[in-house]
Amino acid sequence: MLFVIWMLFLDTNSWLIHKELDQEIQELEDNKKYYIKEIIKDQKDIKVLKDSSELEKFAREEYFMKRDNEEIYIIEYEDSVPKNKKND
Questions:
Q1: Higher confidence at residue 16 or residue 41?
Q2: Less packed terminus of the chain by CB within 10 Å, N or C?
Q3: DSSP secondary-structure letter at 2?
């Protein structure tokens, strides 16, 4: 009985330590899957942005860039603008 208690809780290779390590391994594997998906998505985006018209479209949409002879108007709707909370 003493041996079982020792092996489950007190030893450096105890069941509790193995359980913690297994959880950490699972978290790292989940992170790996997430980053692999993100890499694949970014590679697709890079492939699309190699076309100059797609690059221009991206710059216009994401960074509101424009040509020299153009004007850009940004229209914000009331429900899209965050409301400022004031403490009275």
A1: 41
A2: C
A3: H
